[in-house]
Amino acid sequence: MGLGDDDSGGLAGLDPATLAVHAGAEPSALDGAAMPPLVLSTIYENSRAGEHNYGRERNATWERLETVLAALERGPRAVVFASGMAAIAAVVDAVPVGGRVVAAHNSYSGTRQLLRRLHHAERVEAVLVDIADTEAVTGSCDGAALLCLESLTNPMLTMPDLRACIDAAHDAGAMVMVDNTFATPVTLTPLTWGADVVVHSLTKYVGGHSDLLLGALVCRDPALAERLVEHRTLGGAVPGQLETWLALRGIRTLDVRVRRQMASAATLAGRLVEHPAVARVHYPGLASHPQHARAARQLEGGFGAVLSIEVAGGREEAEAVCAATRLWLHATSLGGVESTLERRRRYPAESDAVPESLLRLSVGIEAVEDLAADLVSALDGGASR
Ligand SMILES: Cc1ncc(COP(=O)(O)O)c(C=O)c1O
Q1: Which of 108, 113, 178, 202 for mutating ligand 1's site (highest number of atoms within 8 Å of CB)?
Q2: Is 203 a pocket residue for ligand 1 (Cβ < 6 Å)?
Q3: Which residue in 32, 221, 223, 351 has the most C-beta neighbors within 10 A?
Q4: Over pLDDT 70: what percentage of the chain?
Q5: Which atom of ligand 1 is nearest to the CA of 150?
Q6: 73 and 206 share a domain?
Q7: Beta carbon of 179 within 6 Å of any ligand 1 atom
Q8: 204 in active site
Q9: Is residue 224 located within the same domain as residue 367?
């Protein structure tokens, strides 16, 4: 029996590493092409178009990516968007006018900027709290329409108590969205912890090669998914077909990449703690991390592949480290095969909860000893200045 011959598509019970390769990967019904075709057509012949009609509504390449994302995130339905921000904006748009949105005070700066803008326009009431502080979250949920969590916050790598926060939000009648970009479904599937919607910037680990912009939502409730599809169709900022195809290619290696990246991140975190030019390492895999026990309970198989360090001294010393690395690319974003680092406070929109001297490190797939040597040499240079 081949995949697709039973009700679950033949995928029930398979390991995520297998799902990443096989979900949404059926040979083309048209000609048997074994690898997913890149469907560029925006129109379909009416006499045999079936459910496909016009490219702004749906596309077979998007649908393959949606199939594999839903399988990995353990949800009934995924919806692909033009970017992670487009996906987040679609969920926030489902909040009634004036509805309360509770989000992390140190969440991804784009999310915070969007909420601030909508708050000032009186479209929503945005309440920012420390989501690692369960009492602060539960105390803000009363009357809320939406709780926005990040599985690991960007860039401080703090972690909410998923069960407690989700239960409190549901008791208050709020929907819960979890941005799972940092943890990835390799280590965490928030729908299985009770979340209603999972959001991804596919631009990061799923794409994995820093060459596409894309986002996605995975919904527990198919009716909500339909509403979000409608938002995508009528909002009109739909995903590009090529980007979607590239993400389909990227997602096949998600498991193997992320596991290697996490192992290297853990090694580097352990070494950097010892370096005299590093004042503090933020990594949930370290016993010193304030939510280490929670992270160990909630994450399976690794603690993520991003770590942040506070460079001893201040912003100049931190910038000097960025300028001195040879392998680590001084660039924004994360989740690519290449290692990158960046001082996040260089952006005026970054939260002032983030120290000026903090560098966010996205660990790639290079040999960890090469990465360590390059970083230590840059830090040694900074320390001797
Ligand atoms: C955690 C997180 N969520 C969402 C986004 C937004 O994604 P995109 O840049 O694909 O719109 C980012 C981007 O950095 C991010 O780090």
Answers
A1: 108
A2: yes
A3: 351
A4: 96
A5: 1
A6: yes
A7: yes
A8: yes
A9: no
Of 320, 355, 313, whose CA–CA distance to 341 is shortest?
Answer: 320
**Structure confidence at residue 47 (pLDDT):** 78
Q: Is any ligand 1 atom within 6 A of the Cβ of residue 110?
A: yes
Mean pLDDT, residues 169-185 taken together: 98
Exactly one of 179, 205, 343, 345 is catalytic; name it: 179
**Catalytic site residue 108?**
yes
When pLDDT is averaged across residues 266-280 and rounded to a whole number, the result is: 98
Q: Are residues 247 and 265 in the same domain?
A: no
pLDDT at 7: 47
Q: State the number of CA atoms in the 13 A half-sphere of 298 facing the CB.
A: 26
Assigned domain for 289 exists: yes
Q: Tell me the residue range of the domain where 367 lies.
A: 254-384
The ligand 1 atom at the shortest distance from the C-alpha of residue 154 is 1
Question: Over the stretch 233-245, which tens digit does the pLDDT of each residue have?
Answer: 999 999 999 999 9
Q: How far is the CA of 12 from the centre of ligand 1 (A)?
A: 30
Confidence of residue 49 (pLDDT cuts 50, 70, 90): low
